[in-house]
Design brief:
eight-stranded mixed sheet, Rossmann fold
Length: 274
């Protein structure tokens, strides 16, 4: 699903300018804004790895202004993507001086947050960086209320430097969960170093520097540990009994999926599902 669209996007990335914008205009499908508004407006939520530009006013999925409140969670007080992060009340500045509580804890271990605290959870370009995605989703479901919602954005591999890699299968993710793979895991590093498209993305300038940075992934979390497409995301949601509400693409490379936690799943039962 959408593979041809994202392949075209990858080709057009080599031709920046007005022609690229025209092609994107015709490739972009209508976004189901009504579904996002209906499920998020006036609600209280948590964002993992934010704040996120795409959610701000006048951007492609401007949900921040609709929210009643939003807290944030980042794995460290210093990240590649954000300046120094200060934990505590009113430290999460997500939308034009609107602030929420800032947690500093790992996405796979939200022990600071009680069960069912939030109406929804957001995570944009986070899941692919996590070594054990099912463990993370397990935690994310735990902190969301019964019939709450989860909104995920991940990059489609065909539009990114991951296009030569295979999509991560659900069975692989289940095996990682079963083996309790932690965030220090570098199992995928040889594959990444071999198949990464350095012509599209070479953040460190050369392959050896990229390898050196990757060896310190636990500290920086820059690696794409896993690769997703829409079909695999939907299988993942169905497996965890998350009802898919809508699926959208936002060019140039975003896959967006919104789902609802359909019923209260006991922790023991959820672990059996996983």
């Amino acid at each position: 699903m959408y593979e041809k669209t994202f392949k075209m996007v990858r080709i057009m990335s080599k031709f920046p300018g007005i022609f690229q914008k025209i092609v994107y205009y015709f490739l972009q499908e209508k976004i189901n804004y009504e579904a996002y508004y209906k499920n998020l407006q006036g609600k209280e939520g948590l964002e993992i790895g934010g704040p996120t530009q795409i959610f701000k006013k006048n951007n492609k999925l401007p949900i921040y202004p609709w929210l009643k409140s939003l807290d944030g969670c980042n794995f460290s007080e210093n990240t590649v993507w954000h300046d120094r992060i200060e934990k505590g009340k009113l430290s999460y500045d997500y939308d034009n001086r609107r602030r929420g509580y800032q947690y500093i804890c790992d996405a796979v271990d939200l022990k600071l947050i009680e069960d069912g605290k939030y109406d929804f959870l957001l995570a944009s370009h986070v899941l692919e960086h996590i070594a054990n995605p099912l463990k993370a989703l397990h935690e994310w479901l735990r902190v969301v209320k019964e019939e709450g919602t989860i909104l995920l954005i991940v990059p489609h591999k065909e539009a990114t430097f991951d296009h030569q890699r295979e999509v991560t299968t659900l069975s692989h993710l289940k095996e990682d969960f079963k083996n309790n793979v932690d965030e220090k895991d570098l199992t995928h590093l040889p594959e990444i170093l071999k198949l990464h498209d350095y012509g599209l993305h070479n953040p460190t300038g050369d392959v050896e520097s990229f390898r050196e940075r990757s060896l310190h992934n636990y500290e920086n979390r820059c690696l794409h540990q896993h690769v997703f497409d829409i079909d695999q995301l939907m299988k993942l949601f169905n497996h965890l009994q998350i009802e898919v509400i809508t699926v959208d693409i936002i060019l140039p490379h975003n896959l967006v999926i919104l789902g609802q936690k359909t019923k209260k799943i006991p922790i023991k039962q959820l672990k059996k599902l996983i």
